[in-house]
Amino acid sequence: MVFTGLKKLLGKGRSPPLRQEEVAELYTRYGALMKRRCLSLLRNEALADDAFQDAFINLIRYGAEYRQVENKLSWLYRVCDRACFRILDKQKRHQGPSLDSVPPTAAPAVPLEQRGEVLSLLQELSQQDRHIAVMAYVEGCSQGEIAHALGLSRQTINKRLKTIRQQAQERLGDTP
Amino acid sequence: MTQHPTAAQLEAYHAQGTGPTELIEHLENCLECQNYLKLLEAERLSFLEKEGPEAFLARSPIAEAMRTSAPTKSISRRWVLAVPTLALTAAAAGYLFNVGPSPQIGFKGTPQLKVLRLRDGKQSIFSQKVSIKAQDKLRFEVTISTAGNYSLGIQEQGESWQPIFEQHYFEPGNYFVPDDALEVLAPVKETEVLFGPAEDYPNYLPSSKAARCQLLPE
């Protein structure tokens, strides 16, 4: 499930923050994949490292939930996505360094056509469209899977993806 | 599995070393996916060689976060203390705080619901819609004019109902619930908070007896 939701803490003792050895284990097991995720979204090594570090800081401060999460990697990806989106928003406001154009090698399920163009458009998309684009072009989810995860109709996803691709196409057309 | 598994499925398999049977069967016959897994493993080794966990934990922002990370409870407690009317009698259950007689209790009918949001140390109150993002802390102020059993829960768009408490008896009054703040983790979808008489629970929609508030991810 994309939305981790509200953590219900009612009547239960709160989990203490992650311990150093837990963070080290998390880094060893998932660090490379998290960094890859950040690089896919930001296409800039330095920015990806910033996002990766921010994601870990958030995990250290607020990530006790991690212990209970069933799909840990997917949950960690959402933490990374949010850190990346924050950086993209900052980039947008302050005209930061330009993003490189080549994201890391994609999994076989990911559609390669327009992938680079769509990912380079992330900065300009709404939060919802960003999630849709990431699920389609980074995770390789089908429209049905995206619709299910985001609680939207398949038709809406189809329409949104069409618009996103169109925007990417137009952007490509504008590039001299 | 005729299609390739998603990147997330392959990556989870790579990280955890286990996966659904379908995925394992697919992997046995798919050279492309096998190559992708090999690529991930090579990346992992090079990533750890470049900076191991000890070195990463020694980075000053990480070390600082480790040093200063406090249990969430203290954050919640700070917020609870910020609620001006807290010095009040504990309510029927341990997790409810009755904030005492309130001038708001003059109406009859539908209970009222407000969302208290704590963000970056600032507390705000909302009655219909509230934008939320990760790390926000939420509590709810409910106002009841008629004694009875009430339920409070959240429903994320397209998901099933998640009760925060069910069938709790309230005397007329104002209450801040629950005792500990709820922590927003990674909101993506709109979520509705509903509070109303327990007998209608969880079929509040479209009952007019329930008070509701929308949580909108930023």
Q: Major β-sheet of chain B, in short?
A: 5 strands, antiparallel
**Please, what is the average pLDDT of chain A?**
82
Strand content of chain B: 25-35%
- Summed up, the helix count of chain B is 6
Helicity range of chain B: 25-40%
Strand content of chain A: under 5%
Give Rg of chain A in angstroms: 17 Å
Number of strands of chain A: 1
**Gyration radius of chain B, in Å:** 24 Å
* First-to-last CA distance of chain A: 41 Å
Helix content of chain A: 55-70%
Query: Which blocks of ≥5 consecutive residues of chain B have pLDDT under 50?
Result: 70-107
Largest interface summary: A-B, 68 and 66 residues
Q: How many runs of DSSP E, i.e. beta strands of chain B?
A: 10
Globally, the shape of chain A reads: globular
Structural commentary:
The complex is a heterodimer of chains A (176) and B (218). By secondary structure, chain A is mainly alpha-helical. Chain A has helices at 20-42, 45-62, 72-94, 115-120, 127-137, 143-150, 154-174; one strand spanning 6-7. Chain A is globular. The N and C termini of chain A lie far apart (41 Å). In chain B, the strands form 2 sheets. Chain B has a 5-stranded antiparallel beta sheet with strand order 1-8-5-2-3, with helices on one face. The model of chain B is unreliable at 70-107 (pLDDT under 50). Chain B has helices at residues 7-16, 21-29, 31-50, 53-58, 60-68, 72-82, and strands at residues 97-98, 112-119, 122-126, 129-132, 137-144, 148-156, 161-170, 173-184, 191-197, 211-217. In chain B, a hairpin with a 4-residue loop joins strand 6 (148-156) and strand 7. Chain B has 218 residues and is an alpha+beta fold. Chain B is elongated and about 65 Å long. Chain B is built from 6 helices and 10 strands. Chain B is 30% helix and 33% strand. Chains A and B meet through strand 1, helix 1, helix 2, helix 3 and helix 5 of A and helix 1, helix 3, helix 4, helix 5 and helix 6 of B.
List keywords for this structure.
heterodimer; A: 176 residues; mainly alpha; globular; B: 218 residues; alpha+beta; 5-stranded antiparallel sheet; 5-stranded mixed sheet; 30% helix; elongated
